[in-house]
Amino acid sequence: MKLLEGKNAIITGASRGIGRGIALVFAQHGANVAFTYSSSVQAAQDLEKELTALGIKAKGYKSNAASFEESQELVEKVKKDFSSIDILINNAGITKDNLLMRMTEEDFDKVVEINLKSVFNMTKAVQRTMLKQRKGSIINMSSVVGVKGNAGQSNYAASKAGMIGFSKSMALELGSRNIRTNVIAPGFIETEMTAKLDEKTVEGWRNAIPLKRGGSPEDIANACVFLGSDLSSYITGQVLNVDGGMLT
Ligand code: NAP
To answer: Which Pfam family is one of those matched by this entry (predicted)?
Structure first.
């Protein structure tokens, strides 16, 4: 069953990893996909082709989610190309890990700008369109680290926790117009990035998870399908942990 037939979605940071997985699963569910990337031009072009081959409309845009102006311009372009915006997934994110002792001001600011300010930028940019439509679903990609904290990731944890406060506030502000805002907190998701890690370390992480495996981008994408679709039409302001039971 196609759960997103005819819906238009914007997904930030979809040239790789989780965002790419969401774009593919959304297309399989019949959604049209506008997605962004930061520098991976070739990967974005390949994804655009792969998505279009699934019979939906798809387009990649180079846009820095940390920039207020670029986010405004992006949404204007997407509105021209796709007409309406039903779903926004703020997925773009980076890490610059270090103990506080060694963390530079630049590394703190950069992570907060790309992970958290981007959510403000994009929500602000789609707000008017969704208000006019009197519907919309916004999904923000936090992390288990935003819920629990993590040594060596204070900048990342702060950005991901900030996203939760922002989302709950949006749920309160925009609920009366049928705009829902929810958060997904992924645990350990195996992407190309984690494939580079030492196998022994990764095996240790897997064993510590109740479901005894790392998650896949598809595991996160399926949760996004639920929150983006009308199946979740009475759910807003929630944080859904998609982590194999890590936080249990
Ligand atoms: P990833 O493989 O590193 O991919 C990040 C994506 O974001 C890429 O498409 C990248 O584009 C894009 N991006 C980076 N900076 C950007 C910017 N300034 N503007 C627009 N796009 C930008 O990351 P991932 O593992 O898939 O993670 C995706 C999201 O899930 C992140 O928010 C991350 O914090 C969160 N998360 C991941 C895990 C995990 O275990 N992987 C766990 C919890 C939460 P380019 O390819 O052009 O650089």
So the answer is: adh_short_C2
pLDDT (tens digit per residue) in 58-72: 999 999 999 999 999
pLDDT one-digit tens code per residue, 74-115: 999 999 999 999 999 999 999 999 999 999 999 999 999 999
Provide CB contacts within 8 A for 101, sequence distance 6+.
none
Catalytic annotation present for 156 = yes
Give the mutation target among 16, 64, 115 for probing the ligand 1 site: most ligand atoms within 8 A of CB. 16
Q: Can you name the CATH fold of 8-241?
A: Rossmann fold (3.40.50)
Interval between CA 117 and ligand 1 midpoint (Å):
15
Q: How far apart are CA 160 and CA 144, in angstroms?
A: 9
Domain ranges of the chain: 8-241
Count of H-run helices and E-run strands, the chain: 10, 7
